[in-house]
């Protein structure tokens, strides 16, 4: 009770008083609390404890910066040294040279004060990352462009810093058909896209109040969907554990982020502000505040890519009339992870190819030819179970939505052809 009273005082001070006075009050109140609990700390310990207190209170980012700057620099230097000495194959290690590190280590984004540590801390903690960086807010793509741009170019097949992402184009939605009419290979098909709500930072910078506000906006907006898309919104906070686990097992619902997202501070205030919307058939889903603000997903059993694609296009066109999304003229639609920029489209199938599973060199050869990403059955960082792979388009930038899905369509058709021939 004493601690909560102190927290309330700090929040009131943050809203009403000047910066220096507020900082003095934080230290004073924290010292009182610690003394009342029979504890005593001095110097840097008090500063670090004060910073933790500010984080708990969701006090303005600028305040926290004043405490964390020495801590941030120290952690950055140590993390960079360990990464450089590691055998990591991440794009972070590849492009975070000493020169780039020295240039970026003291920079902060203008609106939210995000640092280089916020950008790279997941990759510093997880040397087995494939990429290793996230954007804590939209401005990070500009402030830390010397790191983001080469990583984007590498991952997205040569999308240079002078290139411009094309305008949104879904193409002829009737082009795609059923890739596996007989149901021999494809277990399920899914096409999703990510969207960030305009006016909000990304997960690491969101306050608890903002999470709640966004959830309310999303729930209210989706309640207006009709026809095949009509459904209901379920907040994670109001969901029984049994229902939640059933939806996770059916691949409909997300669970709290893995260690890569945890390290990037993408799971703060969990499960506040998180929820799922699904239509009656559970063939159209919306994830609210998982990795991105919104994940719009069309999915169903079997290989009818055409039906899945048309449903997603219809949903996105409807929802974007109601919710403004963050978009950049050069990068396209903005997302938390740079691998999802541009179209943000991920078109995927769960496909059983036991012969190719035994000939991984051939599988990787075809995947490379069609810019496909091959994952384990349950997604990134998992193993293939029974020869079942999650295979999707890899490129999302520098091409249209239609072209991104077409690469997956053509690649899967080729894999099925080869599987039959082996």
TrEMBL record:
Its EC number is 2.7.3.3. It is an enzyme of class 2 (transferase). Coiled coil: none annotated. Residues 185-422 form the Phosphagen kinase C-terminal domain. GO terms for biological process: phosphocreatine biosynthetic process. GO terms for cellular component: extracellular space. Keywords: ATP-binding, Kinase, Nucleotide-binding, Transferase. Residues 72-157 form the Phosphagen kinase N-terminal domain. InterPro entries: ATP-guanido_PTrfase, ATP-guanido_PTrfase_AS, ATP-guanido_PTrfase_cat, ATP-guanido_PTrfase_N, ATP-guanido_PTrfase_N_sf, Gln_synth/guanido_kin_cat_dom. GO terms for molecular function: arginine kinase activity; ATP binding; creatine kinase activity. SUPFAM superfamilies: Glutamine synthetase/guanido kinase, Guanido kinase N-terminal domain. ATP binds at residues 188-192, 251, 295, 346-350, 375-380. It comes from the Eukaryota. The keyword Transferase applies. Belongs to the ATP:guanido phosphotransferase family. This is arginine kinase. It comes from Cuerna arida. The lineage of its organism: Eukaryota, Metazoa, Ecdysozoa, Arthropoda, Hexapoda.
